[in-house]
Amino acid sequence: MRILYTDVLVIGGGLAGLRAAVGARRRGHDVIILSLVPAKRSHSAAAQGGMQASLGNTARGEGDNEDVHFEDTVRGSDWGCDQAVARLFVHAAPQAVRELAAWGVPWNRVRAGEREVVMDGRRVTLSERPEAHGLIAARDFGGTKKWRTCYVSDGTGHGMLYAVSDKAVAEGIPVHERMEAIALIHEGGRCHGAIVRNLVTGELVAYVAKATCIATGGFGRIYRVTSNAVINEGIGAAIALETGAACLGNMEAVQFHPTTIFPAGILVTEGCRGDGGLLKDAAGHRFMPDYEPEKKELASRDVVSRRMEEHIRAGHGVNSRFGEHLWLDITLLGAAHIDSRLREVKEICRHFLGIDPARDFIPVRPAQHYSMGGIRTDARGEAYGLAGLFACGEAACWDLHGFNRLGGNSVAETVVAGMIVGENIADFVESSAGELRVSTALVQEFLAAEQAKLDTLLQGNGNESATEIRRRMQDIMTDKVGIFRRGDLLAEAVDELQALLQRSRRIGVATRRPGSNPELVAAYRVQKMLKLALCVAYGALQRTESRGAHYREDHPRRDDANWLKRTLASWSDPFQTLPTLAYEALDVRRMELPPGWRGYGARDAIEHPATAPRAVEIATIREAFGHADRYTVQQALMPYEHLVPVRFRGRNERLGDAS
Amino acid sequence: MTTDTPRQLTLRILRSSPSEGIEPHWQDFRVEEAEGMTLFIALNEVRDTLDPSLQFDFVCRAGICGSCGMLIDGRPGLACRSLTRDFGPLITLAPLPVFALIGDLSVDTGSWMRGTAERLETWIHSQAEPDLTAVEAKMEPELAEAIYELDRCIECGCCVAGCGTLRMREDFVGAVGLNKIARFRLDPRDERSDEDYYELIGDDAGVFGCMSLLGCHDVCPKGLPLQTQIAFLRRKMVAVGLK
Questions:
Q1: Does B137 contact A99 at a Cβ distance shorter than 8 Å?
Q2: Are strands A374-376 and A396-397 parallel, antiparallel or unpaired?
Q3: In B, residues 49-68, which contact A (CB 8 Å cutoff)?
Q4: What kind and span of H or E run contains A131?
Q5: CB-based burial label for B238 (10 Å; 0-12, 13-18, 19+)
Q6: How large a percentage of chain A has pLDDT more than 90?
Q7: pLDDT tens digit sequence for B162-211
Q8: How far apart are CA B63 and CA A617, in angstroms?
């Protein structure tokens, strides 16, 4: 058996994993990154529109700061997020974007003077301040009060991923490519690394580490229609679940992006609407203002996606041979704008649809896009129930996004969480808790168990097809656990998924060769993916309210009185067919922003009994502090600075600050 | 295409399995064409229904990540965004040359690109640690856009596969490498000088090895201005060499 030792094992070579690795490496620790693919192929590269950070450099961003970003994020989450984590995030986001600027990301820059933009369907002239010339620009995105989304044309994720990936090369961090973690090594509530399968040779290797960090992204591929890359199968989250010690948070919180091209499901950025694009129906009518007079096309993603599907149900969809869709109209932005700011969109339209978005409408329909749920961690990024296991980025639920993530907050989260969790990992490794105490017997035991599972697939007499089971799972998730959810359909989904899980234990694999074996990979992955699918479907069935992206037609109101809590799913017995669900209450009495109306969407929430008293308390505190600065007031309302690693403390400067 | 009956496509794939000692050989697979079918869809259909052992690499399937470079009818390109309707009824698919073969259509671009990054040090070289809370340094908007223009490379390997020099010189940095030097050279945040770059590419394994066949320019899926950038770099490096 082969065992590799390292201080820190990072599973996943996307933005979150890379940035966490750089942080731990810079603190002097040995780090190895595992990646299914070359790191620069990670799905982070597909983030188009930008990352939110309250720099406030542009005319429409003036006056922006952490407070405004915080409130937008909490409202976006439909009060499902951890507000202390949201504070930590909005504080560090400007530092992340500035760090990336120093590392070479070619952020789009402010040009002083007047310029024409499209807002609410009309051309208007904005005037940028001369002193802001050359600073990092920002565009508008959904659910935000200010233009806050920093961008690199519509290749933001690409620019960021290449800069951070090259930074990891500069730091000499090895990336072991085409390596897949298939189990975590753990004992007595302590994680010791992972059992890893080499996807080229088929060999199993044990990576033993003081700290392990999962940054494997989302699990969109449990759905049939998704914008996610084909590698986003959630295996990182699944192996955490399979420990029985760690748990997954809010798995039913799944985001559907309003604009993916129909029917391929490929994303076209929210920047299309942020820059002035409109949604239109079969009659060419701009319908969003009818539903959402305040934010129109730029309400949060959950709201826009629901309104689109509602409009299609009302008979206003465009018929095509693949089914119904709506139109995204960016023709009004003009060819020059599209050629410079939306060029990936233009390429996608040309190659996959054969159209020119400067002249033609883009056929779009919502598709699965983002997993708000994931490995439940504390605000330091350490997993519940398993010391030495950390998680960051989309794979984690430290809970920045609650039940709906704002556009531009995820690619920001990857680097921010990487910065913060990387420091916390280094602290852990340097502490007495971080000492490595693991016997090779234990490692051998885990290796043998995983080898036995693979052998069963390869040499057992199973006759079920992984491809067929997987397709059925994806159909169930898209048809019954989608944008609109209903108790009876969810119950059916849970039953069918359980039956599939049982069938998946009898999968047979025909390809027996020793090396690369895509058939075997599909087999062991679908067994894991089904567990995630069950966490999503069962969590959704139990949650009898509507919050953010989780919408129950049979329980259409947000119910703070009963459901202001986070779902925790665990799977302690490998033979159980349903996750064990527990709940963790969110404490209204400690919220900086108690539950209320989001500023868009429904206004009929059932109030939590602690909301009104907390609102009174907050008003009293604000009054007592009178003319104190915003930092002091914030500190009095909800302290969070203890969560900020030392090197990221200090106040973010902005243009026009009194120095 | 006016007929109602869909075309029957033949995918002729160059198959191999080095781990089993199976030498490259052609194998035909038949699939029925569907509306809007890409090679991503067609290859997955082959794997799902005809041969589960078939190896290929897709990640984003949207032309963004660069994973699926292969020879399509002999020409390097991204399979995910190649529509079958743009090809004849017989489409040949082979792995990209130059890179180490993993099996079938899968090649190891990752090690090659990592080697390039380490050799050319494709990161910002700066002595100063950034002050993260301070207002960021300014940059002209046009310059930022010009850097992005060269930063759009997705390391798919098509230029490497289309390069004449690389067939003769294994150590040639290729258009991907030269474009990266052009990118960092343009970036004022990188403190390296032309003398530093000359050390990296001022020889036959670098910019002077290019024979100007420019297959790279023709096949780049991102339409990067490789021809101009290589010519420009060569001029700049000659100037250093003549000093």
A1: no
A2: parallel
A3: 52-55, 57-67
A4: none
A5: middle
A6: 97
A7: 999 999 999 999 999 999 999 999 999 999 999 999 999 999 999 999 99
A8: 53
Positions of A marked catalytic? 257, 273
Contact B66 A136 (CB under 8 A): no
Quick check: A392 pLDDT over 60? Answer: yes
Residue of A nearest to B113 (CA): A38
| Lookup: tokens for A615 | 């609102």
CA–CA dist B9, A604 (Å, integer): 55
Contact A110, A132 (CB under 8 A): yes
Q: Is A333 left (phi over 0), alpha (psi -120 to 50) or beta?
A: alpha
Radius of gyration of chain B (CA): 21
In this prediction, residue A485 carries a pLDDT of 98
- Average pLDDT over chain A reads 97
Residues in B touching A103 (Cβ below 8 Å): 123-124
Inspect the interface and report whether the beta carbons of B144 and A167 lie closer than 8 Å: no
Q: What is the dihedral of CA A194, A200, A204, A208, to 10 degrees?
A: -30
A216 at B interface, C-beta within 8 A:
no
Q: Is there a cis peptide before residue A556, judged by omega within 30 degrees of 0?
A: no
Distance CA A39, CA A88 (A): 27
d(CA A304, CA A310): 10
Sign of CA dihedral A87, A89, A94, A98: positive
DSSP, collapsed to helix, strand or coil, labels residue B32 as strand
Largest CA distance in chain A: 75
Residue B228 has pLDDT above 90, yes or no: yes
Task: Retrieve residue B187's tokens.
Answer: 């970036």
The span from the CA of A119 to the CA of A389, in Å, is 46
The amino acid sitting at B137 is A
Of the candidates A165, A170, A167, A93, the one whose C-alpha atom is nearest the C-alpha of residue A136 is A93
Q: Does A516 touch chain B (CB under 8 A)?
A: yes
The residue type at B42: A
Q: Whole-structure pTM over 0.95, yes or no?
A: yes
pLDDT, tens digit, for every residue of B34-91?
999 999 999 999 999 999 999 999 999 999 999 999 999 999 999 999 999 999 999 9
Give the C-alpha separation, B16 to B104, whole Å: 5
Asked if A101 and B130 come within 8 Å (Cβ–Cβ), the reply is: yes
Separation between Cα atoms, residue A375 and residue A568, nearest integer Å: 9
Closest to A270 (Cα-Cα) out of A396, A96, A154:
A154
Flag if A352 and B62 touch (Cβ within 8 Å).
Answer: yes
Confidence of residue B213 (pLDDT cuts 50, 70, 90): very high
CB contact at 8 A, B162 and B96: no
Phi, psi values for residue B11, rounded to 5° = -95, 115
